[in-house]
Please model this.
Amino acid sequence: MADVQLKQIKKSYGQVNVLHGIDLDIKHGEFVVLVGASGCGKSTLLRLIAGLEDISGGELLIDNKVVNHQPPAKRGIAMVFQSYALYPHMSVFKNMAFGLKISGKDKNFVREKVEHAAKILQIDHLLERLPRELSGGQRQRVAIGRAIVRDPNVFLFDEPLSNLDAALRVQTRVEIGKLHKDLDATIIYVTHDQVEAMTLGDKIVVMNKGRVEQCGSPLELYRHPRTQFVAGFIGSPKMNFMKGKVSVKTEGSIYVKLADGVEVEARVESGAIAVGEEVTVGVRPEHLQESLHGEGRLKGKINLVEHLGEVSYIYMTLTDGSEVVVRGDGETEVKVGEEIYADYQPQNVHVFNAQGLAFKRLTAAEADAPAAAMIRQAAGGNT
Amino acid sequence: MTHSDIRKPFPWHILVFLGPGLLIYLTVSVYPLLDTLRLGFFSEDESGATFFVGMQNYANLLFSEVWSEPFWNALKNNLMFFVIHMLLQNPIGLLLALLLSSPRLRLSGTYRTLLFMPTMLSVVIVGFVWQLLLSPLWGISEDFMYNIGLGDYFDAWLGKEGTALVTLSLISVWQFVGIPMMLIYAALLNIPEDLNDAGVVDGANSWQIFWNIKLPLLLPTISMVSILTFVANFNAFELIYAVKGALAGPNFSTDIMGTLFYRTFFGFQLQQGSPTMGAAVATLMFLIILIGVAIYLFFVQRRIQRFQL
Amino acid sequence: MLNKMTLTMPWSGMNKLTLKPDLGKKLMVHAVLLTYTVIALFPILVILINSFKTRKAIFNDPLGLPDASSFTLVGFEEVLARSSFDVFFFNSLIVTVLSLFFVLLFGAMAAWALTEYRFRGALFIAALFAMGIMIPIRLGTVSILQLMVDLDLVNTRTSLVLVYIAQGLPLAVYILSEFIRTIPKELKEAARCDNVSEYKIFFQIVLPLIRPAMATVAVFTMIPIWNDLWFPLILAPGESTQTITLGVQQFIGQFVTDWNAVLSSLTLAIAPVLVLYLVFSRQLIRGLTAGAVK
Model:
């Protein structure tokens, strides 16, 4: 078992604090993705876990032991570097065997280990080559192979796909996911790409400015982003934001008046909201529908239409001045310059206060409870 | 384009670009070198007229009683000079470069600048500086050695037959250690930090990382530094001339190829200078350097691959 | 044990604990570097300091700084009176600057011609230049002297400039060729499509682009020229054409026993180089390491 626990982990370089007390609880076998914009501290955090940098404060536990002062090799971790960091003068075999050789393992044992890992990764025919004779994808596999032979409890991946081209990236992503299942190991994976995070992670940790913004499963983050930062970070294209003031508040629902007077309804827990409070409303492009007629809905002028085949993205400026993206029908006929409406369901609207914190959105079931009851009633009445 | 139907004009621009440099290089470097090789097969009489003597000059240099002793002496001394450089200059340069490149080292820029300072100075000046420092007349070194309890070991090293050459070699090492240091330092900076980290994660300690990862990647640089040292050493002259004069005393114990060449060409004391004999010495120096460079090009460089990092 | 300790330690205490092994290592590094820095600087400093002291102070207290009673400029006065240091300095300056200018200009032009145009003999000429990197020009001294005698250039600065151009060209051509090869083709082709002449392409497009490499070449060319003794000694030993290195060598040979004068002449030779080096060391080291050092 190799749980990884971070308790108030801090890192500072001189006077500059990079990480301000990170708490994380990672269970054995979990695939955890650290995601955030560059400079948010995610790579630093990974290097602290690896032991490549000293921890300034807090405790790091791997397998229930404090490892703050253990050298990397004694922590039961293996790391795959962004640049792969293959030793350029060593063959693939030697690259993979180096760690075992250093620890004084028996030659036959080393050979067996390396060949086994090479087979898993389908690079067994490349063992005698030098790194420079390999393609990017092959180098990537060697880097992973070097990690596998160490039999680590925890794999650390530092943006491993960023040097691959788009097609290879998708393929490798799938393979890493599969590898995770086969190896039954804990994986901590750093990326700035939210798609990678969503597709790979059992758990996603969104970081911002040295702090954890939110930690949860991909769907949880998508459905209930706790902050405006997370809401904007998870999902592609980005969530649309509009500023406004709360005008009406009822049980389970509020209305927000935008600058142009249009009111947007949102189904959120309204207890903590005051009428007149300045808030930001967020709706994902996929939760907006184009519509040619409408009243009380968002209205705007089209700036650009991107046809992607199955869907189209319609970029428009709303009457209150905010720019939004609407995911339209793949074969939509709307044109640049036209005025259209954007339709939404109130339960899909997110609301954030002035500090960027979200008001809990009521799930469809909760929000629709009265309506559902009514429908059930109506249905029952009919029979 | 219309090039096919108009006859191409003479490419004057190539001549203009290449001409001046090539002309100077050919007349002042290539021609004199070839002419020197030719002159080595000639001798001259009192009037200065030259006549062909075949391999006579070389036979004299290598075997005759008058010439062979100084020649082999100078060659032996020069080898010694080179070996001391290889044993000290490169390892010290490597060590300093490794220390300078340690991560987040404060003042590394200052160290770099100051350590390289002696290399900037003229060999002649450096020779005089050390001559003064080591002079028993002034006694700075003697006092210093007494202060650290080694006073009895002080000697007029530059003046003794047994120690003069070693001392001069050490002075030269002192001055030029900056070159291997700087070149190896630059090579070290080009080794990505990730490789170091990968080694740490693999469980290697600092020594193992140096030995297994960094040193192999530095070998091309180290061998390049070595051949540069070889050429410079077998071409050296100034230091010996400044400190010991053209006679490379005491009793020719510091005579190297450069000083032998100078004496042979210009003469000294009673011996007349001889351009043709000088040319023969220069030709032998040329051959020695050529052999060194050939070994480097065909054996060392070919075996040591440059790794793309 | 370590683990238990950290568990009971307050944060501040833990910080120190993590720093300790690192600190020891760092101190060691600094100790070694500092020691070697002292070894590198001490001899130079001793000379500089003592050149400002009276003969008595030089011998009685060689390591002391000059004070009111021991300070004197008598050595410098003697040097300036008995030799023409200003002339030597000027000679060195003009020879170095002119040689450097022509090495850079002709070197860049030749490198351009050899890499850009295809013509018969290009490979041979390139190989000829490459040989010159390894084969010292000194070996041709016998014939160079004869050549200068024939051209009536003995005891002129021109002879030195010519030799130094020939000495510096091979490395310049090599380094600049490597660099010119990295210039994107599109730049030159775009210019040719606009009917820009080959000369303009070189002087207005290529030359500005290879400036960083020129800095490297300048460093490698300049230092050996300024410090050379061999060719000044053989080609231009006359009083009026002596360079500073030769001038100091001759002066010291003459006044060996006049310690004030000897120390002062060394200081006069060292000081300008030292000042220039300290001012430009960053650029110089960057050039020397071809940009690896920022």
Observations:
- Confidence is low (pLDDT under 50) at residues 1-20 of chain C.
- The longest helix of chain C spans residues 11-50.
- Residues 20-82+255-289 of chain C form one domain.
- Chain C is about 75% helix and 0% strand.
